[in-house]
């Protein structure tokens, strides 16, 4: 007797434990295998770009916190770079170092979270996630010392950072760096070369380099495919030109390589933080700019950084008023998502979840 | 006083039953006390398993909390011991939802169908000397038969829920259960060969050396198979909360969910009990005449700890890898083990067909050698899949491009 | 390979099993909170406030509502505005601290609390009476003069308005009395010294702000 089978369409999300926010995928399965994928997003749209047109330049910093809410510091940095370019303000040296330092700490925090949830999707019941969060908590404590908040930081301002670090910040940072080495090594030993992780992720959802470049994928996702493109190296901003670090790349382009590149980037970030601590010198932390900024009419600028998820950029156009005429956010998560269909079709349901985890998307940034 | 069980009665072997029966027989007529004693045993069994399941749910959450380097539930009662009660009360007060398009009858049967085999399994496990509720002479077979009811229950849950996630979970669960049944049975054959009997009492008394040492591969296969049947990591595909929300019990809520959870935690305990009986020499140990139950509970505790430890450490396999693991790794392993054991038993047994303790030690040595060889062989076969990544930095990459 | 890395993983989890948990039992014990913490329970000193509404203008969400009337009681003492309304609806507040940053007279401070759960949105509005009567434990966020004293809002005593100012309170009082005096140049604007707070400059809108949001709905 012939058995009649038919493909099954399932809505993965928007309420699903591992879609990393309110992301929806309409997937057609043949058994466990994926035939079609249709990513649907916009559930978290808050109109950030439009809101920015209603606020003055300093107030927008608080909006950028809420784009990629696990790496607010880097969002602040990108936006402030854009506004500084618009105004032609020179940032004091100490502020540059503080920004570099905090951005790298934020990158560590963001990667720890990305890795944690990636491994959570692999089914580890949260153990690496908890170990990652253990370290992340300490980073958030440091941020609390700097600016009084843990997630939505608003630490940076156009022209520098809002305030110098308090005196007890530096010993705490040293303590953190000491602890982190031990904790991160523990995490590496726990999971980095675990056989099950390898079997599950090697060769799965391969992103070829040419497709990655054509789709303008950026960040660790691109570097796992074999490119060493990193804005911190290619067009150094803030204090990165004085930093000695490597850009970890892998050639496989599969889930494991994406995970592996993130793990290595954490090491490099810590290296940068150490160099910042060594090189930083006393000085002003904020250029003398007024609270209400009025760039010249018709000026425009493009501030971009290498965020934890990829290339994050703010395009700001001024009409001479106190708020921008237009602000466009180039969010890496959204653009990295464009390859979803290519990555997922032909793989299984379990791989789909893991691949989404390995892309490390953040819906706050995708939907804006 | 006047009620005595006939020696041909199957329940005569069960000391506990006989004691209750004779005590009740002082007051009631024999026929009635026969029923009352039976009911009393049932109460002990059902409540033992359910309370144990509740306790284990707390133990596991605490253990995993500590593995995560956090505290775990500790608010209700001393050390949070009343947490299962709190959970239960919460679940009982929740609305008992049935999806509109669900098959209501099947949907309602599932929790019971999942819980029943768990409790039934416990009936044949001796938890102290002569204290099995029923000392069946086909105990091993009985366990295998009863536990496979779960697969039916899982599929019923998936089908009746009319939910696609549940269906995914159910079909995965059934595939896993059917696949893993084979190596589990094969691994148990080695134990049965050694003990020369299918009665769990005899298996325990045959373990002068715990069969864990004599049958390391069988133990591993059985442990892996049981983990798969229990839906525990790394084989928890039927639930796979990060993929399928809750798998086959996605649609269950309230008291039904409580029963399913009780069945799952209870199943861990009963499976541990079975493993203890088959591989860890059951209730025997020093002073086991009086403290057999303590040894039994201690060994269960160790195994439960191990289950939690594995759950806290390992990621999950994919469905095809999971089935490949069963058919390509566990099944050959159990066949090799069965073959080796059969040869050893054939050559080492004496004329009466029994094995001396020294023979068991010899077999332990040989089997460990075989196990190690198998590990090397199978490890080499999957070498290519688990090779680590190479570090390529920007400099080396441009060098590659220049070539 | 051969499960060795998995075995390593098992050892790692076992090692963590024996470690002391890094989480805390929240209501009984708390993690240490830095004095800079930006929290609820805004601290407002009426004595320092001139009713300039800089905070209201600078709030990205516009959740601060200020209504002032010309002072009738003591215009002779230079009291120009009487505050009718000072509402902060913290149900929409995102604790960015920009209001504190904008206040030119150091009259508004962040608080250090985070536990103000309420059952209705109406209760989430801090009104002027609440601000007047509240215990004043100001956060040191954007207030270097407080940070230098080592003040800890979680453990320290409530601070009087004379204790918290950036400049000496006598100066402040004299200005309120109507004496037009040259404002002392803040130390951070003297070029030789490293500036502590450079937002406090002359063309800040807060100082030039004179428009008052008059009519409440």
Short description, anyone?
The complex is a heterotrimer of chains A (368), B (403) and C (217). Chain A is mainly α. Chain A has helices at residues 48-52, 60-64, 72-87, 93-121, 127-147, 169-192, 195-201, 209-214, 220-223, 231-234, 255-279, 332-337, 340-344, 349-359, 363-367; strands at 8-12, 24-30, 33-40, 156-157, 160-161, 300-306, 311-317, 326-330.
**Major sheet details of chain B:** none
Total DSSP E strands of chain B: 0
Low-confidence stretches of chain A: none
CA distance, first residue to last residue of chain A:
53 Å
Quickly name the level 1 CATH class of chain A. Mainly Alpha
Estimated share of beta-strand residues of chain B: under 5%
What average pLDDT do the residues of chain A reach? 87
CATH topology of chain A: Cytochrome-c3 Hydrogenase, chain B
Name the overall outline of chain B. Answer: globular
What is the CATH architecture descriptor of chain A? Orthogonal Bundle
Let me know the largest β-sheet of chain A: 3 strands, antiparallel
Rg of chain B, nearest Å? 24 Å
What percent strand of chain A? 5-15%
Radius of gyration of chain A, in Å, reads: 21 Å
Walk me through this protein's architecture:
The complex is a heterotrimer of chains A (368), B (403) and C (217). Chain A is mainly alpha-helical and 368 residues long. Chain A has one domain: Cytochrome-c3 Hydrogenase, chain B. Chain A is built from 15 helices and 8 strands. In chain A, a hairpin with a 4-residue loop joins strand 6 and strand 7. Chain A is globular and about 80 Å long. The mean pLDDT of chain A is 87. Chain B is mainly alpha-helical and 403 residues long. Chain B has a domain of 278 residues. Chain B has 16 helices and no strands. By secondary structure, chain C is an alpha+beta fold. At the A-C interface, helix 2, helix 5 and helix 6 of A face helix 1 and helix 3 of C.
Please render the helix and strand layout as text.
The complex is a heterotrimer of chains A (about 375), B (about 400) and C (about 220).
Chain A: E1 8-12, E2 24-30, E3 33-40, H1 48-52, H2 60-64, H3 72-87, H4 93-121, H5 127-147, E4 156-157, E5 160-161, H6 169-192, H7 195-201, H8 209-214, H9 220-223, H10 231-234, H11 255-279, E6 300-306, E7 311-317, E8 326-330, H12 332-337, H13 340-344, H14 349-359, H15 363-367
Antiparallel strand pairs in A: 1-2, 2-3, 4-5, 6-7, 7-8
Chain B: H1 15-25, H2 30-67, H3 83-93, H4 104-122, H5 139-147, H6 149-161, H7 164-195, H8 200-206, H9 211-214, H10 216-229, H11 241-244, H12 254-279, H13 288-313, H14 319-348, H15 357-381, H16 394-402
Helix pairs in contact in B: 1-2, 2-12, 2-13, 3-12, 4-5, 4-6, 4-12, 6-7, 7-8, 7-10, 7-14, 10-12, 10-14, 12-13, 14-15
Chain C: H1 4-18, E1 39-44, H2 54-58, E2 64-70, E3 81-89, H3 98-102, E4 108-111, E5 125-126, H4 128-133, H5 144-148, H6 169-176, H7 205-208
